[in-house]
Write a structure and sequence with these properties.
Strand order of the largest sheet: 3-30-29-28
Structural class: alpha+beta
Oligomer: single chain
Shape: globular
Helix content: 10-25%
Radius of gyration: 34 Å
């Protein structure tokens, strides 16, 4: 029995062919090719002709005029554009950009001579005595000032000629309004799997570094580990006595960390599935935690308005980061400075110096509680989510980039992948997909709640991409975990980018 050949679209086959061709010849392009002088000169000549042809034939005095004749067809070397040696001469033509090959000084070309010192003195003598005294009393009436005035007047007349001349080449003098760049096309995402098993709101998710399984924390006080490929339950861990608000899997050791509304921060050894360390110190519910990527420290944040830095092995409280005036809802770590970023219900974001344990910068642009932060995996930027807006920022000082407006709800979670797909999940059960670079909202999802749940119970509490970035996992208020994947059948023709060029409005607040 012959095996059926899988059919592909022409689009796919063309791109495969291009990819194979590129891979075959990429080594040749990597080698440095010696420049051919003659070709290089010809290239420069063509570029000069194409880009600067309107101004190539400006009349040039003295030596410059002689040099012009050395180059056929008006192709000149850079030396031909040197100013005349005599600074007392300025050339003004009948048109700002005389065109046509071989244009030189003609009867219509006016040669304007700047006033000399003797000319200025003779001008002063010719004035009436009273005016001459006034002029002499002014310090501005010096040779230098008069020369500057003449140059200024010439510059103004030249600018007017340029504007009167019109044409496409003069349009760059007028300031253009910035327009939003065209967004990159991303395939839409669709619901792939719904996983049930928790008995309460699912509040947190983390994917393990090997991409084999993921872990969720819930309001039913349990932590569950699920197989990523099949969605089957592998393990349940009990120990918290209240909602589990944060989970994180270490890439440096076989440890799982969890925190909850019972003020506890626990370290689980996954070889024995037991708690091996407790980190005591928070005075109220612990809302989030994150692991530093390069050193063995753990960050937690709490409703007691502090974030704490813990030494994983010794359980010591290295720093207590104080400064926020309300619940600290989210904390994120990175290897580069600033190493710790926190978002709070006091509507501020703080960037911290981990060594000193002090605030480096405070960002006050948000007007509502900041509940989530996410860092771009490749760029040195991050985004913050709040009920008023999603805002993008630049490290290291927290310079504002742009607002992503339109998700009019309390945003609980953000996730971003390397392709520039930003996902925001909100309290009303909506998920919005954004293009990171332009802020274009290319998809909106409102997943139906599961049977047995109320319509009001449709909040998205956490979302995360797996390490292959082919799956998006969300934790929801209907006690389920939903897995989304890209729609393979979608194309740019079937799901076009509904983009209209518009004036770029960068709001600062």
């Amino acid at each position: 029995m012959t095996e059926e050949v899988q059919k592909h679209s022409v689009h796919t086959l063309v791109f495969r062919s291009l990819k194979r061709t590129h891979d075959m010849f990429v080594a040749d392009h990597a080698k440095a090719v010696a420049l051919d002088d003659e070709s290089h000169k010809l290239k420069l000549a063509v570029k000069l002709k194409a880009d600067y042809s309107p101004v190539l034939h400006m009349p040039v005095l003295k030596e410059g005029k002689d040099r012009m004749s050395q180059y056929p067809d008006g192709l000149h070397d850079n030396e031909a554009y040197m100013q005349p040696d005599d600074p007392e001469y300025l050339i003004t033509g009948t048109h700002a950009y005389p065109s046509g090959p071989g244009v030189a000084l003609t009867a219509d070309t006016k040669v304007h001579r700047n006033p000399s010192e003797s000319g200025i003195h003779s001008l002063a003598l010719a004035l009436p005595p009273s005016q001459a005294r006034q002029e002499s009393s002014r310090t501005a009436a010096t040779v230098a000032e008069i020369r500057r005035g003449a140059e200024r007047a010439h510059a103004q007349s030249t600018a007017l000629l340029l504007l009167e001349g019109g044409g496409t080449r003069n349009s760059n003098l007028l300031r253009r309004t910035p327009v939003m760049p065209k967004p990159q096309w991303h395939p839409p995402w669709k619901l792939f799997r719904v996983i049930s098993g928790h008995l309460g709101w699912v509040r947190s998710i983390a994917v393990e570094p090997g991409n084999q399984w993921f872990v969720t924390g819930s309001a039913d006080r349990t932590i569950k580990i699920w197989d990523l490929a099949s969605g089957k339950l592998k393990l349940s861990l009990t120990g918290h006595i209240s909602t589990v608000r944060g989970v994180a899997v270490s890439s440096r050791s076989p440890y799982l960390f969890s925190c909850g509304e019972d003020k506890q921060v626990k370290c689980w050894d996954l070889e024995y599935n037991k708690v091996i360390r407790h980190y005591h110190g928070h005075l109220s519910a612990v809302y989030d935690l994150d692991l530093h990527p390069t050193i063995d420290v753990l960050m937690t944040c709490s409703r007691d308005a502090t974030a704490r830095v813990w030494d994983i092995r010794t359980k010591a409280n290295v720093h207590t980061l104080t400064g926020h005036t309300n619940t600290v809802a989210t904390v994120r770590c990175q290897a580069a400075e600033p190493q710790v970023i926190t978002g709070s219900h006091d509507s501020t974001i703080r960037l911290w110096d981990l060594i000193a344990g002090k605030t480096r910068a405070t960002l006050t642009n948000h007007k509502k509680s900041v509940r989530t932060l996410v860092m771009h995996p490749r760029q040195y930027t991050f985004a913050s989510g709040s009920a008023d807006n999603i805002k993008q920022w630049m490290f290291p000082d927290g310079n504002f980039i742009q607002n992503l407006s339109g998700h009019n709800a309390i945003i609980n979670t953000l996730a971003v992948n390397s392709d520039g797909v930003l996902v925001s999940g909100a309290d009303n059960g909506t998920i919005h997909m954004w293009d990171w670079r332009t802020g274009y909202n290319f998809q909106r999802i409102h997943a139906a709640v599961q049977p047995g749940s109320l319509d009001s119970e449709s909040g998205i509490f956490a979302c995360v991409f797996d390490h292959s970035e082919s799956r998006l996992i969300t934790a929801e208020a209907d006690k389920t975990i939903k897995v989304y994947k890209e729609d393979e059948t979608a194309t740019e023709e079937s799901h076009p980018v509904n983009w209209k060029p518009e004036i770029l409005k960068r709001k600062r607040y």
